[in-house]
Amino acid sequence: MPPLLTLKRSKAYLLIPTAIIALLILVFSDGRYWSTIKITTQDPNNSIDLKDYTFPITDSENILKKIPSHASVQEKCTTFFDVDTFKKTTYSSFNFEDTSVNQFFESHIKKKFKYLSDDDLDSLAQQQFEKYLTPDEIDLVIGMYNDNFKKNLEVLKEIKEQTLQTRIFNECYIKHGFQDLPCNVLQKKLFPWLSNKSPFSEFPSTHPISRFDGNDECILQHINQKSVGKGIVLTASNSHYDDLTSLILILRVLGNTLPIEIIHRGDFSERRQKNIQLLSKNERLSSIIKDKLGIKVSGSLPEQEIRFINIQDSIDSRYRSKFKRFSNKLLASLFNSFHEVVIMDTDVIPFTKPQEFFKFPSYTNSGAWLFKDRTVIYKHGGSDKNFWLNLTPTDAEKRVFDISNPLKERPELIENNRYFQGFSHLVEAGIVVLKKQDYLNTLITSIQFQLWDTAMKRVWGDKEYFWLSFYLNGLDSFTLNQNYAGAAGEVRDIPEELVSKIPRTFNEKEVNVEGICSIQPVHVHDSQLLWMNSGYKFCKKPTYALADKKYYPQLSDAETIKKYKSSIKIKQVLIPPDMDDFYISMIGRSDHDIPWKGWYYTELCAHYTFCAIKDLLVEIEDDKDLKGSEVRDGKNVKEYNGQLITFDIKQSKFFDELGELWMNSDTVFRSVRTGK
């Protein structure tokens, strides 16, 4: 019998609404399921804490137990993927969603919590739910939760089963390249989203990759074996056209020599494709830039080799709706022809030639270079960590296929990983540099999770899959950039209204709060600015200029609007202090209660703007012992300092010119198209 929630309405202390707790966490943690909940069953001695829950043993694990470790790899693969046994495997919950709970949330409960004050949030933190929900609402939600809880546990088991089978498939077919096993049958079962139709039909005839023709071949194996060379991979649709035009212009000016494949789903018009090709090959571009923008471009501007690849038919029609927004980048990472790739968002601005990314030791030493995100203090529930740890390689896989589990063998990997320490963000995937042929298994695993809603709701977009999939395949051979993301601009005093909770005095002495506020996360390696995300605009939502006017009292309305439509000026980059140690020690406190942060999320630019703080002097509670703390003026404090990089005049001018190019690509293209 599935665990049932005990129903008690005690105003002194609410034990019941553990279901409500789960639902509230959905509201405050970007929609993730069952983040930090304790399910009290009818038997008070029988409870399940999803933070510690171990997923059930799967059928695949039982099969592995019967395979002798001394058998050949081929014998092991043949035994594991016995056709008759494997055909019986079903994934009934691929499309399972808690639609009843979700719809109730979106249409009713979520509206109640949309505009809560700090006092209201405090009430929620104290579990005073009866203030907001009626008894009937509590009963309804608890009933829905009980109906769905058992289904959720079944889903967890199926995800574990599929993840293990995908791992063994990668071992047999991708790593060892077996040809004599029924790959086509296995693909249809394990990867139902694959149509087995070639995504390469639009390649020019001069391209060396061969077309996949279906039949009984293994398309994933084919992609792995036929991928060659180095290149840039983008995913785009008509809505990305303006950003893509700016990016192509930037790439030409930087001197990019890598071929580019732009992956789409049939939603990038032929007219726009021709426009991009025209811009990528125009021989007069240098003179046009000088005439229209007054920017002198030194040297030749290499033509860009661009191929547009329509992968829509490569995705089974039944599963196309599963791949939206961010997940299209995962598909593009798989369905390209390159052996080594720079995977890039269309609104990224590189500040170095893309081919140079392949030369950095961060890439050459591992074949996978990822970049850290902002150290924002967003926290997830403990069950998110436990969810992924339950999907790592099992002891049986280690015995039979020698697939390691780095997270189990090296606990420091968990201790030093901010996601596993409770923070929601680790990686920023605007650029990923990957030796695809070596790590195709990680991409396959990442795509698989797009079928499971409960997995997708535990991470934001695609970005965390790029490193999680390594651990889920028994690998730890990726490199994280040495620095976390920073902010670009110039350090200034930050208005108190934006960061009101930071104390402005210490022992009656005034404390300045300095930093940089911007929408763009930027990435630095050894003081070299490598790239930034989110374009060059000061605000990607310039219509919000007047709504933010109160923060710019020195500017007129017209000046504020002009500022919001302008490009940012990069004179400095600030990487704010890493305060994870401070927050780990206070992990039980609500984020909105804590005054000190390296990053402040603001309402500027429709809430896209983050303020990076340069230095902070933090008072430490007496019972906390943080490394580096000291006593000043009778108070236990710790000083946190950010890393500030200042660019010289020549560098700043170069950044400004790239900004002008990015902002005015439409002017440049108009001249390219008309010849005027």
TrEMBL record:
<comment type="similarity">
    <text>Belongs to the MNN1/MNT family.</text>
</comment>
<keyword id="KW-0472">Membrane</keyword>
<keyword id="KW-0808">Transferase</keyword>
<dbReference type="GO" id="GO:0000033">
    <property type="term" value="F:alpha-1,3-mannosyltransferase activity"/>
</dbReference>
<dbReference type="GO" id="GO:0006493">
    <property type="term" value="P:protein O-linked glycosylation"/>
</dbReference>
<keyword id="KW-0735">Signal-anchor</keyword>
<dbReference type="InterPro" id="IPR022751">
    <property type="entry name" value="Alpha_mannosyltransferase"/>
</dbReference>
<dbReference type="GO" id="GO:0016020">
    <property type="term" value="C:membrane"/>
</dbReference>
<dbReference type="Pfam" id="PF11051">
    <property type="entry name" value="Mannosyl_trans3"/>
</dbReference>
<feature type="transmembrane region" description="Helical">
    <location>
        <begin position="12"/>
        <end position="34"/>
    </location>
</feature>
<keyword id="KW-0812">Transmembrane</keyword>
<dbReference type="GO" id="GO:0005794">
    <property type="term" value="C:Golgi apparatus"/>
</dbReference>
<keyword id="KW-0325">Glycoprotein</keyword>
<keyword id="KW-1133">Transmembrane helix</keyword>
<keyword id="KW-0328">Glycosyltransferase</keyword>
<protein>
    <recommendedName>
        <fullName>Alpha-1,3-mannosyltransferase</fullName>
    </recommendedName>
</protein>
<dbReference type="InterPro" id="IPR029044">
    <property type="entry name" value="Nucleotide-diphossugar_trans"/>
</dbReference>
